[in-house]
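Reopening this ticket.

The earlier resolution said the output was attached, but the attachment link was broken on my side. Pasting everything inline this time so it's all in one place.
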Amino acid sequence: ALIYIYAAHLASWVCGGAERLFVSSTAEYGGGKAIRGGVPVCWPQFAGRGALPKHGFVRTSDKWRVLRTSTEPYPCVVLELVDDDETRRLFPQPFKLQYSVTLDGPSSISMALSVLNTGTEPLSFTAALHTYFRVADVRGVSLHGLGGLRYEDNTRANAVETQPEGPLSIAGEVDRVYLDAPAEAHIVDGASAIKVLKLGFPDAVLWNIGERAAGGIKDLAPGEWQHYVCYEAGAVARPATVPASASWTGGQTFSCVDACDALGKLSLGK
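Inline output:
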């Protein structure tokens, strides 16, 4: 795995001999820029849902520092970001963030974001771990585990729709927030699949820009829209609120699995 201290950004995870995260070939690094791909940390605001910069300010921060590393029982790094004069100009609440990335084994990786309210007033935020999964062609991908859920469709002014039962396929631009999504979902791409488990985050975000709008993203090379799908653990529809001197933690775990095994287990679970 590769994680940058800048923005606490996970940029690579190789599993089963294959890269599982997508990073744009024209991604920009440092200098207050958000890295296009990997797992950006969106906090304390998701997207444009508020007055802060899009997706908040921690995904472009150079103030993260390594708090600790370990190799036993599993390789792990913990990074920390603390409020300062610069953050308080945008977001007045005191806070401390800790973000851990752990290689749980040869086929699994976990991320956890902890928010400590170091102030005297409640701290509210929206957030997401904005994962870009690498896929052969997004039009051939299917997602399992979202059937029957209500979602906000951000391509239709946040209209609330219900996802039909069965696997979900992607055609054109997709930008959705699935409300109160279950802990487990599967992303199936040919013979391989990723099992996603989320903890603490109530929602799940699904996004691909689609061919028509892809030209509007300057740090996404031509044709690269086909090679990713974002599926993200998030607290989006309703802000999370942390009382004074309390903490909140949300996380996600990815495991690479055989698609046939995953689909067989999903069928048995019906």
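Reporter confirms the inline version is readable. Helices lie at 85-90, 210-214, 259-268. Residues 92 and 221 are 37 Å apart (CA to CA).
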